[in-house]
Design goal:
alpha/beta, binds NADP nicotinamide-adenine-dinucleotide phosphate, Rossmann fold, eight-stranded mixed beta sheet, 14 strands
């Protein structure tokens, strides 16, 4: 099979590319940067911001995987927030332009989305049938993102929306961010640390994307391991692993006011004090062999 992957140079993309190579598939990668192709991996330039793309990238492609998007970590300035939204919406718009432009063999498009679509809650458990949506900045981004994904159905190809939970990996994402913070040997967290974190290990997520393509699974699926943890438990594991010295509990009110003062109220709700208790009713049908279901497996 031949795959076209946008965002194939990122944390999740690189891991999927590696698995596809091991299984002898051909891979085209869309990147904003010119890169050298190697054996079965070919790079093609695109720029979602100005809607330019190399149309040859779709030749003989069976499955498109969309992972492109501005990284959400960093300072949420006005311009960063615009990039977070625009990069996701415009990437999908450019993929639509590509599919429209040239006759092609694409049978399925699998796109990343995020569990950030749900409101913060420590009690409510959200699954694929939950209709409740949040109203924070990130929830609104994901709503627009999923609207664009839905619109791909007009092409009469199978469309899969993968709402990804927090991805755990030594290679990047939240674990890397927390490790950087922990280098100061001070570890602070909000309130009593009972915020829910619904997570999936990068290796399991990679296998899930692959299984979705092989089984031609379409529709909505949550990419979480059905064993949400809490911030406190995650921090405890990291504390033991990286020999941290001090833990600082910051009262919610103080941190909230601090972030608001810096005009970063959205960041506080969506990242610093995020709490999502999300499960999947469908993951077992597609990928029952999840390997990482406990923090001890990390
Ligand atoms: N990691 C997580 O915990 C997590 C959780 C939920 C959802 N997701 C979603 O899954 C997708 C992949 O995540 P990831 O962790 O692999 O992300 P990542 O490491 O940040 O990689 C994203 C890729 O998107 C491209 N990109 C970055 N900024 C862009 C921009 N402004 N416009 C267009 N393309 C841009 C980059 O490719 P080039 O530089 O080659 O163009 C980059 O390699 C993202 O959409 C993310 O929101 C991730």
């Amino acid at each position: 099979m031949k795959f076209l992957i946008s965002g194939g140079t990122g944390l999740i993309g690189k891991s999927i590319v590696q698995l596809l190579r091991q299984n002898n598939h051909d891979i085209n990668i869309l990147s904003r940067t010119k890169r050298s192709s190697f054996d079965r991996v070919k790079y093609y330039k695109w720029n979602p911001k100005i809607q330019t793309i190399d149309y040859d990238s779709i030749d003989d492609v069976d499955v498109i995987i969309n992972l492109a998007g501005e990284n959400i970590f960093g300072l949420w300035t006005k311009s960063k927030k615009k990039k977070i939204l625009d990069s996701r919406v415009k990437s999908l718009q450019l993929l639509k332009k590509l599919i429209n432009h040239k006759p092609n063999n694409v049978k399925q498009i699998i796109s990343a989305s995020a569990i950030g679509i749900f409101p913060n809650s420590k009690e409510i458990i959200f699954d694929e049938n939950s209709t409740q949506k949040g109203s924070s900045f990130l929830s609104n981004v994901v709503k627009e993102w999923e609207r664009e994904i839905e619109s791909l159905k007009a092409f009469k190809i199978n469309v899969t929306t993968v709402r990804i939970g927090m991805v755990f990996s030594e290679l990047g994402g939240i674990i890397k961010v927390l490790r950087l913070i922990t280098k100061s040997r001070f570890l602070s967290f909000v309130g009593n640390g009972d915020q829910k974190i619904s997570w999936i290990h990068l290796n399991d997520l990679t296998e899930l994307f692959y299984k979705i393509s092989q089984k031609n699974y379409h529709g909505l699926i949550h990419a979480v391991n059905n064993n949400p943890t809490t911030m406190l438990d995650l921090i405890s594991i990291l504390t033991n692993k990286y020999k941290l010295k001090f833990k600082v509990f910051i009262p919610e009110l103080i941190l909230k006011s601090f972030f608001r003062l810096l005009c970063l109220g959205d960041f506080y709700e969506d990242i610093a004090n995020s709490s999502k208790n999300v499960v999947s009713k469908r993951i077992n049908k597609v990928y029952p062999e999840l390997k990482y279901t406990d923090l001890k497996d990390l």
